[in-house]
Amino acid sequence: MRDASVSSPERVKSGMLHLYERTYLEEWVEGLYKQIGITSPSDLTIENVSARLRMGVTFAPGVADEVIFDADYGHIFINSLHCPQRQWEVFCHELCHPLRHLGNQLLLPDEFRKWQERDAQAFQFYAAVPFFLLQKLELPDHEKELIDLLSVEFGVTHGFAKRRWEQVLRRIARGRLHHELVQTLSVPKKQAAPRLVREQLVSYMAVKEKVRPKVAFVLCYDSLIYNVNERRAARQMEDLVL
Ligand SMILES: [Zn+2]
Predict the structure, then answer these.
(1) C-alpha of residue 93 to centroid of ligand 1, in Å
(2) C-alpha pair distances (Å), 69 with each of 84, 95, 102, 180, 214
(3) Start and end of every IrrE N-terminal-like domain (predicted)?
(4) What is the pLDDT of residue 231?
(5) Phi-psi region of 216 (alpha: psi -120 to 50; beta: other; left: phi over 0)
(6) What spacing in Å lies between the alpha carbon of 82 and ligand 1's midpoint?
(7) What pTM, to 2 d.p., does this model score?
(8) Where is the domain boundary, 109, 134, 159?
(9) What is the per-residue pLDDT across 94-109, written as a single tens digit (0 to 9) for each?
(10) Fewer beta carbons below 10 Å: N end or C end of the chain?
(11) Does 139 fall in a domain?
(12) How many domains does the chain contain in total?
């Protein structure tokens, strides 16, 4: 369930994209792309990105999608039987490992390996459909057309484009939540009993954004509202809420 005012593409198009909240990882990917001169969706091809990052790529029918790497070398294997869109998605996942991770996964503790996989899954969305390029597009009014456009512009499957767009909407909802939090906090703190503010915020989340705060959110709330760094507070919200 999602607030219609958030999920409506018309409303998003008319100016809510500025509320989109980037994660640290997304900022990292964006910084990397800018460093290697990625300025438009047409720059996002396996050939171009791998060449600029000096990453080897081999396409072969039936090969397992994977990457072999050490500190100075990375080579990605992609099953050429995948459609081109899927190949790009696979590339964006595998690319994360040599850029951000260390070591042979077979030798790593299970939890650490799982963390690396989650990191690569998150990376994949930011690398395949980066927000700084998405926000330059003229977005159609209707969601289906919008998702078709993302799929064509970024060369991803329709399902991937849809998941990325849903993520964008969640991040906008988070941005709105953050905005609301800042407004709530602008009430002089000594006048606003923390518990009351917390209850207001929780009911705002439940009623307006249709998100149910995790127990951890409630437990961490008091330290969160007194966090003077708003950006950091917003990021903590991501882990706790969305
Ligand atoms: Zn992986």
Answers:
(1) 6
(2) 23, 10, 9, 44, 38
(3) 69-165
(4) 53
(5) alpha
(6) 17
(7) 0.73
(8) 134
(9) 999 999 887 677 777 7
(10) N
(11) no
(12) 2
